[in-house]
Amino acid sequence: MNKGSIHRALAVVLIAIGFAPVWVRTASAQQQLQYTKEQIEQIKKQNEKAANMNVLIEQANAAMTAKNWQGAVGSMQQLIAIDPANWSLYSVLGDAQLNLGQYDQAVDTYQKGIQVAGSITTVDSRNPATDPAKKKAGEAHMLTNEGNAYLKLHKNKEAIDAYNKAASMDPNPARAYFNLCATQYNIGNVEGALHACDKALAADPNKADAYFIKGSLLVADSKTDRNGKITAPPGTVEALRKYLELAPNGAHANDVQQMLGYLGIAPK
Asked: Per DSSP, what are the bridge partners of residue 40?
């Protein structure tokens, strides 16, 4: 798992999912005269809640920018205690826990967030967390990272299930499909890995590592005739060359060069 990419996502996630500082409700002296005593007390409570949340939001953003994941966890837990019906808070908390290696806790947090998101049935224009598109993308994000946590716990079946669910609902499913591809590859499910790699590449044709996995799997399925001539399945050379085109200095570039050499093919 790429912690750098998770950090970058965390650094903007509060704003991206619509969780920005809460605006304090104010009223003019004339308006206050129109309120009952109970209404005024309610407004004061709402303002106090908003002020507390704004402080915690600032603390959480500062902690995440500094990669102080434990500090971020503390702030997010307090925010959830104030606003437990906001799925986006669970998403951020789960990501911080994932960075800390608290995989069991991260799974629990993501599941709670997904449950909260699923319980939202009405759209409130004042609350971005109720926007159907953002909610769907948020659920997919939580499912994908839940799968990452399951992988760290060596629960491959659960990880695969989470990735499949994420891919089915994510408007940009390349990440979920690639994680599914890599997981199937690691457990030796060639057919499942190839299918997921093709799905990842259909969603993002520039996913270099998906080409590497696909090419590696196809090379392994090569046939050698009685004269020692090696014939690779269709698409093998194209996948390997595409990896080098996209990542000429990538982590797998040397492996790809060797595979092409094994097949007697020039890198091009």
From this structure: none
Res 113 pLDDT > 90: yes
| CB < 8 Å & 24+ apart, contacts of 173-179 | 173/140, 173/199, 173/200, 173/203, 174/200, 174/203, 174/204, 174/207, 175/144, 176/140, 176/143, 176/144, 176/147, 177/203, 178/204, 178/207, 178/209, 178/210, 179/144, 179/147, 179/148, 179/151
Please choose, from the candidates 183, 218, 217, 175, the residue with its C-alpha nearest in 3D space to the C-alpha of residue 200. Answer: 175
Q: How confident is the model at residue 12 (pLDDT cuts 50, 70, 90)?
A: very low
Could you tell me the domains of the chain?
Answer: 1-171 (1.25.40.10), 174-268 (1.25.40.10)
Write the pLDDT tens digit of every residue in 210-219.
999 999 999 9
Largest interatomic CA distance in the chain: 97
Q: What's the pLDDT tens digit per position in 154-165? A: 999 999 999 999
Give the pLDDT mean for 136-164: 97
Model confidence at 6: pLDDT above 50: no
